[in-house]
Amino acid sequence: MAETVVTVGLGDRSYPIRISSGLLAKIGFDLRQRDIGTKYGVITDDTVAELYGKQCLQSLESAGLRAELITFPHGEANKHMETVAALASELAQRGFDRGDALIALGGGVTGDITGFLAAIYMRGIPFVQVPTTLLSQVDSSVGGKTGVDLPEGKNLVGVFYQPKAVYIDTDVLHTLPLDELQGGLAEVIKYGVIHDADFFAFLKKNKDAVFALQQDVLTRLIARCCEIKAWVVEQDEREGGLRRILNFGHTIGHAVEAASDFQLIHGKSVAIGMCAAAKLAVRTGCLAEQDACAIQDLIERYELPRSIPAELDRQLIKKYLLNDKKTIAGRVFYVLPEAIGKVMITNQVSAHDVDAVITCPV
Ligand SMILES: NC(=O)c1ccc[n+]([C@@H]2O[C@H](COP(=O)([O-])OP(=O)(O)OC[C@H]3O[C@@H](n4cnc5c(N)ncnc54)[C@H](O)[C@@H]3O)[C@@H](O)[C@H]2O)c1
Ligand SMILES: O=C(O)C(=O)C[C@@H](O)[C@H](O)[C@H](O)COP(=O)(O)O
Ligand SMILES: [Zn+2]
Question: Pathway membership of this protein (predicted)?
Fold first, then answer.
């Protein structure tokens, strides 16, 4: 199958998202042509290092580029400032300078950490994204949101910093655990709800092909998500308005993720958050019951959770809600669906409705 390319159009900071099978072996050649750095620091977690570290280094070295693998322990629990500080020291000790560049090889945790590191190391060096989870291929590797968590909440420290290119090799999804594939599918469903009813219908129809990682369906799915994200980011890079729609499912989702102490992965927390937002939308009168059911049914079809686990502390969820960046002057912003393919942003949801949805058992 031919390569698919989606462009993120940001003037002189525009960049390509290249999508194809077998791309990992070709990135060295492409990077040499782009002349992004003298030496490449390949930042990756221990799991991905074991699976794809060697392949990535070989791709760069066979193109005549110098590269070094630098690892950190996998998992959301390590997406914090201490990891960034340790990686920055490692770069300095290995002599990385302003002529060098970073490669984020891994999932969203690696991408968020590496992008942030690239933005602040020596006040900014270039980086590229090589996402290896479905979630990172359809969402986190695109758009330049980088950052880490604080004990007080998710992604509370970070900057907007765009990559120079995104390389999506669909082959790497074959080693991804099912749980992680499903997490990515939650963000995929998000795109259908916020912007594209036809894509929502496509997902409804193609579940088996998606789970079987059928190449044509997978490429179409990843490309459509990247197109929608690029379309949003091109209009509102720094989340002054439209970009907030990408946060559908993340208001309650992020609070649930943090309250579970990251035992619930990001994508699954977003699935729960999208169902909660659909319920809130019905309660506030902006969404028809049957559309809320359609959203919940698709989430269930992809074997994702729909409700907040009973054992999670509701008060803790409310505390995290108030610490989130979506809370301004004490008012929490929600992205609520109005129909499949259309959402609105509001900070006028009553505490009573939020309480009802958070405490609701199903
Ligand atoms: N910046 C953004 O725009 C943005 C968007 C969405 C999510 N995020 C962030 O992304 C993070 C979630 O990303 P994620 O779901 O990719 O999690 P992740 O990076 O933790 O990856 C999930 C797990 O899969 C393993 N893994 C990665 N690729 C693999 C492969 N090909 N085969 C086998 N195992 C593999 C990793 O080692 C990890 O243990 C969260 O921190 C979330 O906040 C950021
Ligand atoms: O790119 C964006 O914008 C998003 O909101 C994408 C989300 O899927 C992602 O989880 C993001 O990290 C959330 O950002 P935050 O600013 O709410 O922390
Ligand atoms: Zn997300």
Answer: Metabolic intermediate biosynthesis; chorismate biosynthesis; chorismate from D-erythrose 4-phosphate and phosphoenolpyruvate: step 2/7
